[in-house]
Amino acid sequence: MPDAMPNSSQAMTAVAVQSPFEPRIVAFFCNWCTYLAADLAGTSRLKYAANVRVVRVMCSGRVDPQFVLDAFAHGADGVLIGGCHPGDCHYQEGNYKALRRYRLLKRLLGQMGIEEERLRLEWISASEAERFRWVMNDMVEHVRVLGPLHFEPAKEVFAEEVAV
Amino acid sequence: MAGKPKVALYWCASCGGCEETVVDLAEALLDVVAAIDIVFWPVALDFKRNDLEAMPDGTLLATFVNGAIRTTEQEEMARLLRCKSKLLLAFGSCSHLGGIPGLANLFDRQSIFASIYRESPSTVNAEGVLPHLRHKDNGHTVELPGFYQTVRTLSQIVDVDYYVPGCPPTPRTVRTALQTLLGGELPPKGTLLAPDTALCEECPRKDSKPENLSISQFKRPHEVLIDEEKCLLAQGLLCMGPATRGGCEAPCIHGNMPCTGCGGPTSRVKDQGAKILSSLASLVEGKEVAEIDHALATIPDPVGSFYRYSLPSSLLRRKKLDNSKDLETSPR
């Protein structure tokens, strides 16, 4: 589900001038496709935004929604899940399960005051290094425009209250 | 009398159902009273905070606290009871997980006050008076407890020794908890006094749960005539059983209603809502976004359904506070 390639480099520059905000993105990549695409991008010396912290999982279907919520609760500004294209799952159905969870999890995040765009699911095969690079950069730019999530400060308010 | 262990019961943000469950012990209540002395129980006995403060620390063998922590008064009482008790038990879903009052964490104090004291159709409040901490009238000052932005669980305030799950805990759970406390050998601190298995394990309809389940539409209990024998999930009802701790003997299922999750998660799960979301969503029919969304649209309120009892103890704890609003951090 690639979004149209946006021309957001201008927006990116404008925001960068105002604040030094660097989005923190946590990514869960499937061992068989997206992680290999990341590998290929690396060996091909493709340059892309360095904001992404990658966690390798065996399948996008292994990404427990708890992982995503935990990332947001601990300071992630965005979470990216990368899996195999539909029909290509190493375990037949894992990516479909990921897709179904993702669709519901986005709605849940919306209810919790977290913009749905902060969570993203992308299908990237092992050979798509160029697409991998574009997705990384595009995700970082989108989250940069959204700004910091600041879920942590919400918890600080909570801590201050306790101290009263 | 003096030799009997002293026990206290207290309530915070709760409905009173947990107090009711003590009465539901029926004849067994006589055995309880024979074995322990209840020395502080505001709902039933006329003892005051002063009486509690006068006790030396550690006087009480155990205190059962039900209800979530919403106000400064509840927090103070939780701390006071902690000092006076050798063992502190979180009793019932609100104290254990945040409970139904914890769903208020989807809102902030300003909107709650506005809704309750100004906007609700039955409210007459022409001057728009909101509760505040101190009020002076004719030279007298009256005080109200402060109201926090966020509802919390008991263990987010004080050290908790044991947890008794359920909304409310069933009489059997209560009996087991009491027997454990009086039985001599205490379980390790932090133990949840209920089995560590999902409700499905003890569900009377367990055998009718299909191997492969595929759901194209979720149905709400009022929309269908529910089959009394068949697995509720297989009928498309949103049943929290797979992600909920059992031990309650499934009274809701016996009443032909789906589990709503009051037992909280098992020890292997941190976030009950995320786990049931994971489980239910993966059962949904379809491989295309439109088809999946169509099926999932039949869950109108994911947070309210999946975190009905556990929002304050979930990974996110509350809805993100709107930073653009002037949110005072002190209670009022």
SSE layout:
The complex is a heterodimer of chains A (164) and B (332).
Chain A: H1 9-18, E1 25-30, H2 34-43, E2 52-57, H3 65-73, E3 78-83, H4 94-111, E4 119-123, H5 129-146, H6 151-163
Parallel strand pairs in A: 1-2, 1-3, 3-4
Chain B: E1 6-11, H1 17-23, H2 28-35, E2 37-40, H3 49-54, E3 60-66, E4 69-71, H4 72-84, E5 85-91, H5 93-97, H6 109-119, E6 134-137, E7 140-143, E8 147-152, E9 162-164, H7 171-182, H8 251-254, H9 272-282, H10 289-296, H11 302-306
Parallel strand pairs in B: 1-2, 1-3, 3-5, 5-9
Antiparallel strand pairs in B: 4-8, 6-7
Q: What CATH architecture label of the largest domain in chain B applies?
A: 3-Layer(aba) Sandwich
Low-confidence stretches of chain A: 1-8
**Of all protein chain pairs, which has the greatest interface, and how many residues does each chain bring to it?**
A-B, 37 and 46 residues
Helix and strand element order of chain A = HEHEHEHEHH
Q: Count up the helices of chain A.
A: 6
Task: Work out the number of β strands of chain B.
Answer: 9
CATH fold-type name of chain A: Rossmann fold
CATH class wording of chain A: Alpha Beta
Within the CATH hierarchy, at the fold level, what is the topology of the largest domain in chain B?
Answer: Rossmann fold
The total domain count of chain B is: 2
**How many domain units of chain A?**
1
First-to-last CA distance of chain B: 43 Å
Q: What is the global morphology of chain A?
A: globular
By secondary-structure content and strand pairing, the structural class of chain B works out as: alpha/beta
Mean residue pLDDT of chain B: 93
How big is the Rg of chain A? 16 Å
Physical arrangement of strands within the biggest beta sheet of chain B: 2-1-3-5-9
Structural class of chain A: alpha/beta
